Amino acid sequence: MRVEVDNARVVGPSNKYGEQYVTTKPDQNRTYRGGTEVLAENATPSGRLEVVTANGADLGLDVGDVLAGATVGPIDWSSFGGYALDATTVGTPQRNHPAPVVAQPAGTRQLSIATYNVENLAQGDSAAKYQALAQGVVTNLAAPDIVALEEVQDNTGSRDDGTVAADQTLAKLTAAISAAGGPSYQWREIDPVNDKDGGQPGGNIRVAFLYDPSRVSFVDTGSTSVDRSTTGTQAVKSHGKAALSLSPGRIDPTNPVWTDSRKPLAGEFSFRGQRVIVIANHFDSKLGDQNADGRFQYPEQSSTVQRAGQALVVHQFVRSLLDVEKKAEVVVLGDLNDYQFSAALAVLRTGNAAGTGPASLTDLITTLPADQQYTYVYNGISQVLDHILVTRAVRGINYQVVHVNAEYTNQTSDHDPQVLAFTP
Questions:
Q1: Got the DSSP string for 293-313?
Q2: N or C: at which end does the chain have fewer Cβ atoms within 10 angstroms?
Q3: Closest CA to 269 of 175, 401, 148
Q4: Residue 132 — pLDDT band, cuts 50, 70, 90?
Q5: C-alpha span between 44 and 355 (Å, rounded)
């Protein structure tokens, strides 16, 4: 069937294959920056339409841009699932995309903590990628006191040569941040067991902390002779406060729920004499799930079982900290690879998939207006994969999602970072 779409707004940025997504229902679940978002389980926006240009021409469109006038061509069915319009006529690009978000800086007495998936950052990546990441941290995130990173690769990147250390990768990133006018960040991380944490084969991705030592101190605890890649940290009491037996430490790293997946990294920080525990995460991906646009409806989401198991382990660890200190200030953050309304997030908050009963954690993305609840754009769907959750004692919150990547055809990462500021 030959069809025409007029004045189509872009909801998924252009890629090198000449593909971009537009919406035929401009008022459907519109985000505040022009995308279209998913707000409930099995509620994929029905107005999305993939537009494929002739000869794969890259139009360089961002979310919020418009193909003014008529875009015309026959309708096809993409091999990846979903309808596609093979455009013989393409509307005139009207570039309306919003500027990248710049976070409001934290106050002097506020502690600021960010999460940023840096998309398989390898030591051998270009200087341009490091410079762009650094500028994002310094300018767009306003140089947070603590940054939890996801997808930091080992020193030899995807070469599967037994290397697990990532000190060169992190040194290159922190040097780039300093050169961009940011803090002289230090870092803490735990090298994974080779080829056991999933991700790109050979890359040994892991989560890591950067922190600004002029603003916050990292509290190192536990024996240096312990193999922290396989020995889990525990909640303990120190001077009447919740603390960690190992800091940095992994949470229950030999539990089967972490098979071929990243293990959470817990760390103690001291800010103006107050102790804050931060838990960085990168849950199992959605790889293996059936396509939301495929023939099977509703699609089977087999990966959610593992993420729900991972969420339960982290929830139980947070409960163990709260059992030691009811008013413990705990921040759980990272790429959780699931939606704010998912079973995994319900388990993380409350300990059960129904989300019933008292919540140990508040998912801050749910405190934003509905049209701002997204951190990622996939196949034209604005959605939440990255989260910051906090215990009840964390007060005076300023929380922001910083849109710098996901809506743009030129991306430093496929995820948008976010930042929390509060007064401990």
A1: TSSSSSPP-TTHHHHHHHHHH
A2: N
A3: 148
A4: very high
A5: 22
Burial of 406 (0-12, 13-18, 19+ CB in 10 A): buried
Alpha carbon 288 to chain centroid, angstroms: 19
Give 25-85 as a DSSP string: -TTTTB-TTS-BB--STT---TTEEEEE-GGG------TT-EEEEEEEEEEEE-TTSSEEE
Helix (H, G, I), strand (E, B) or coil at 285: coil
Look at residue 80 and tell me whether its pLDDT is greater than 80: no
Strand locations in 59-164 (E): 66-77, 83-86, 92-94, 111-121, 146-152
pTM here?
0.97
Q: Which residues of 100-119 are buried (b: 16+ CB within 10 A; e: fewer)?
A: bbebeebeeebbbbbbbbbb
- Closest by alpha carbon to 314, among 338, 287, 289? 338
Phi and psi at residue 416, to the nearest 5°: -95, 140
Query: For 291-331, what is each residue's pLDDT tens digit?
Result: 888 888 899 999 999 999 999 999 999 999 999 999 999 99
Other Cβ atoms less than 10 A from the Cβ of 77: the count is 11
d(CA 338, CA 290): 15
Closest C-alpha to 98, from 6, 10, 228? 10
